[in-house]
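Figure 6 in text form: structure in, sequence out.
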């Protein structure tokens, strides 16, 4: 991929994504496979006035070997120095930039119990940090770059070089970073969310009824005074940022106690380096009552059984079929991309910003208001081109506002 285009992508992450300010600490996490690009992001962060830029290097292979060969008790401990490091960064007001290129199968065959135990201790130890990021007290942004393993998974018939080039092209197009001025293009894109958000926020539906041909038929209660969000976020000082690039979704908070019916996934889900395929869940009183998956059911169980909130919903997000990613008709095996091609739900923690005054509520108050609390937040896709959604008002009247995969207002 041409260097000038990558420089623009790096600048987009720094300026529009994390919106790095003068004198700010920046923490980048990214794969060793993408070292040249990560260095560009570092340079762009200094150009934006960062005081210091740190890099947390990730390596799928090293991680995999550890899961396979390390002493089993390693996975029951999340060392205090890791927690202290996050706290030191958070105290300094760090901005977090994540560059993701993981192989969707990186941890295939690894003991699911090791993954479950470590996810649990890590989740508990980093709770304070997650509160800051999910509550928008700290800015953060995630983008994706290709790796060979990922590119070959998406385009198995191409050579490594061709698959990499094609995945770069698709990722940049999907992230609206293929034009001459991606930063300006995102200013326009952000405006396009307003009409949908205004409409749904004014309606304040009591619940949504959602159906698809492949078997989803579910009624989701929405919390009182819910807020539909989309097209980016603002931190507590009012500084705008884009947690995800791409982003095409509008999303809000389901009531943790009011989901009734069946949800059939429309795409596989890569979680903990394992691909969960052909899965479905049935909800009763907001909780998963039964579930099944054709492959990696144990990985799905790791999410649902993580804690009390793992088997409840924390997000309902609607995406129109006509988004650029939807138009590519490609399965990316990557949540950042697939979730912006398809309507989705999240198991686990809800975002405080999806309810009025949410960031001022204690965890107990948040849960009482219907917000879900959990160590996990995992999006999975259930949207199809024939999805239909009805909004149901408190008096029972129905509005069919989304028909066959498109908004109709
Ligand atoms: Zn989402
Ligand atoms: Zn989500």
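Output sequence:
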């Amino acid at each position: 991929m041409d260097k000038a285009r990558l420089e623009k992508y790096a600048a987009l992450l720094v300026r529009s994504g994390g919106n790095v300010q003068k004198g700010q600490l920046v923490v980048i996490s990214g794969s060793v496979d993408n070292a040249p690009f990560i260095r560009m992001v570092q340079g762009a962060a200094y150009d934006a006035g960062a005081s210091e830029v740190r890099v947390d290097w990730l390596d799928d292979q090293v991680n995999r070997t550890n899961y396979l060969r390390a002493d089993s008790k390693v996975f029951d401990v999340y060392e205090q120095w890791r927690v202290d490091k996050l706290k030191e960064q958070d105290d300094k007001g760090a901005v977090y930039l994540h560059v993701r290129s993981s192989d969707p199968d990186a941890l295939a065959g690894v003991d699911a119990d090791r993954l479950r135990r470590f996810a649990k201790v890590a989740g508990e130890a980093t709770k304070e940090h997650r509160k800051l990021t999910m509550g928008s007290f700290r800015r953060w942004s995630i983008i994706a770059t290709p790796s060979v393993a990922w590119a070959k998974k998406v385009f198995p018939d191409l050579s490594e070089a061709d698959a990499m080039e094609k995945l770069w092209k698709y990722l940049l197009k999907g992230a609206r970073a293929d034009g001459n001025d991606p930063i300006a293009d995102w200013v326009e894109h952000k405006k396009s969310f307003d009409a949908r958000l205004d409409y749904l926020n004014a309606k304040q539906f009591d619940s949504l009824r959602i159906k698809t041909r492949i078997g989803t038929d579910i009624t989701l209660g929405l919390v009182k005074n819910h807020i539909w969000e989309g097209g980016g976020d603002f931190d507590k000082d009012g500084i705008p940022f884009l947690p995800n690039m791409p982003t095409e979704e509008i999303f809000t908070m389901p009531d943790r106690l009011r989901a009734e019916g069946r949800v059939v996934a429309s795409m596989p889900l890569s979680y903990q380096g394992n691909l969960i395929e052909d899965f479905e869940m049935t909800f009763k009183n907001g909780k998963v009552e039964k579930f099944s998956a054709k492959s990696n059911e144990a990985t799905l169980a790791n999410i649902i059984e993580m804690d009390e909130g793992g088997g409840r919903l924390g997000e309902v997000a609607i995406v129109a079929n006509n988004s650029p990613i939807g138009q590519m008709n490609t399965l990316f095996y990557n949540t950042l991309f697939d979730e912006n091609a398809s309507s989705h739900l999240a198991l686990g923690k809800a975002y405080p910003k999806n309810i009025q005054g949410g960031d001022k509520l204690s965890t107990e108050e948040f849960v009482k208001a219907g917000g879900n609390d959990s160590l996990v937040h995992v999006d999975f896709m259930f949207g199809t081109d024939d999805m239909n959604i009805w909004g149901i008002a408190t008096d029972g009247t129905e509005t069919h506002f989304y028909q066959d995969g498109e908004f109709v207002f």
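Caption detail: Residues 315, 346, 377, 379 surround zinc ion (ligand 2) (CB under 6 Å).
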